[in-house]
Amino acid sequence: MKNTVTLTDNRNGKSYEFPILDGTLGPSVIDISNLYKDTNMFTFDRGYTSTAMCRSEITFIDGAKGELKYRGYDIDWLAKNKIFLDVIHLLLHKKLPNQVELSEFRTRLKMRSFINEKMMSLFSAFPDRAHPMAVLQACVANLSAYYKRDMNFDDPVEYMELAERLVAKMPTLAAFYHRYTMGYPFIYPDLDRGFTENFLYMMRSFPHSHVNISPIEVKALDTVLMLHADHEQNASTTTVRTVGSTHSHPYSCVSAGIGALWGHAHGGANEGVIKQLEEIGSVDNVDKYIKKAKDKNDPFRLMGFGHRVYKNYDPRAKVLKSLRDELIDEIGIDSNLIKIANKIEKIVSEDDYFISRNLYPNVDFNSGLILKALKIPTAMFAVMFVIGRVPGWMAQWMELKEQDTIKIVRPRQLYVGPSSQNKDENLEKSNIEFSSSKDR
Ligand code: CMC
């Protein structure tokens, strides 16, 4: 049996054959690279719901089974047995590190965690209370100006350094901007602390005073970051790959990725969850909001529910739900918000509107509650997603670089606009006045 599919054009009876490609896991794909050449037609796939845009070895998702793997390792196994730093190494260096590799990796990231002091002046160019995502996007684009001489993207050693630099500086940029907005003194990275603990230290500490960071808080944040580390070809990763396909440098790819992630349908949802739970305010109001979510004429959506790929359960949400329950007393998660969240989750799991549309809690449903308990300001929730996701973006960018040929991402369209507007007779019939050259 031939491994192909046949497409028949019923208008003229012509048939065309396309190869089927098999991956190691997941659905096979139909290779339609020659479709336009052979048939003079494009495919139409709004939002790429049925399109594989690349080959990748990094992350596998089975949306029906609710499975997520980074380089073959199940996310719940990683969450139980490894730390975020191991996962960053796994994504960038393609293997889990041994003790020596982990220690060397930790040291390299620490040495790269400082930022050029001149970058501080960038913060003052923003008006008060600028959203931290806007600032982070600018800071990352700005980093390219400081490393102009180290941008040889064809040298794998150099681009690995660049990837580690970006991963290492992200927590410092985020914490520094927080300090700046609060008017607090900047707290520099502490080289004696681990990656995640150091971030909490830079956020909370004051000079010459003791800062209280409990191991359980570090574990909670570390797990949140690990769960966000990669998620195959989601909107922001596709953005990073798209910008990368033009041979633009990784700082601009990541900066563009931050822009894509900011939207409330993607990384902005964790901020949206908390705002929504606070707006609901009491368990007594839950039914009213559920009604709004189900109303076709109301644009309101339950934040933290639904996913393009997971049609069973988001495995990241499962890990976070048990982490949330484990932490509930230890880090003081807001009990009123928990009650509201529990009631929503119960209704959603029993109501036919949500069941029939496969709407389950996603990663953002519980990450917001955990981040709030860790006293991370709500406006910084999406920033936490970015800190977690940069290793994934850089792994995807490096994978793009390793391909034999990089094809610029350039989808086509179904044009439905006017076929012609510039015929003299059209102009004569219309009220359009001719512009004079003065108006140019
Ligand atoms: N609340 C109420 N109805 C919903 C929701 C929701 N959260 N999500 C989807 N629906 C309904 C939607 O109205 C539609 O109904 P109908 O078939 O009657 O028109 C149906 O479910 C399918 O929705 P869709 O928008 O076509 O699905 P999608 O796969 O394009 O969108 C989504 C996925 C995540 C953007 C969407 O579920 C959503 O907006 N969720 C809320 C925002 C959110 O939590 N985003 C975080 C995503 S997870 C983090 C990440 O990985 O980025």
UniProtKB/TrEMBL annotation:
<keyword id="KW-0816">Tricarboxylic acid cycle</keyword>
<keyword id="KW-0808">Transferase</keyword>
<dbReference type="GO" id="GO:0036440">
    <property type="term" value="F:citrate synthase activity"/>
</dbReference>
<comment type="similarity">
    <text>Belongs to the citrate synthase family.</text>
</comment>
<keyword id="KW-0012">Acyltransferase</keyword>
<dbReference type="GO" id="GO:0005737">
    <property type="term" value="C:cytoplasm"/>
</dbReference>
<dbReference type="InterPro" id="IPR019810">
    <property type="entry name" value="Citrate_synthase_AS"/>
</dbReference>
<protein>
    <recommendedName>
        <fullName>Citrate synthase</fullName>
    </recommendedName>
</protein>
<dbReference type="InterPro" id="IPR002020">
    <property type="entry name" value="Citrate_synthase"/>
</dbReference>
<dbReference type="InterPro" id="IPR016143">
    <property type="entry name" value="Citrate_synth-like_sm_a-sub"/>
</dbReference>
<dbReference type="InterPro" id="IPR024176">
    <property type="entry name" value="Citrate_synthase_bac-typ"/>
</dbReference>
<dbReference type="InterPro" id="IPR036969">
    <property type="entry name" value="Citrate_synthase_sf"/>
</dbReference>
<dbReference type="Pfam" id="PF00285">
    <property type="entry name" value="Citrate_synt"/>
</dbReference>
<feature type="region of interest" description="Disordered">
    <location>
        <begin position="418"/>
        <end position="440"/>
    </location>
</feature>
<comment type="pathway">
    <text>Carbohydrate metabolism; tricarboxylic acid cycle; isocitrate from oxaloacetate: step 1/2.</text>
</comment>
<feature type="active site">
    <location>
        <position position="307"/>
    </location>
</feature>
<dbReference type="GO" id="GO:0006099">
    <property type="term" value="P:tricarboxylic acid cycle"/>
</dbReference>
<feature type="active site">
    <location>
        <position position="364"/>
    </location>
</feature>
<dbReference type="InterPro" id="IPR010953">
    <property type="entry name" value="Citrate_synthase_typ-I"/>
</dbReference>
<dbReference type="InterPro" id="IPR016142">
    <property type="entry name" value="Citrate_synth-like_lrg_a-sub"/>
</dbReference>
<feature type="compositionally biased region" description="Basic and acidic residues">
    <location>
        <begin position="422"/>
        <end position="440"/>
    </location>
</feature>
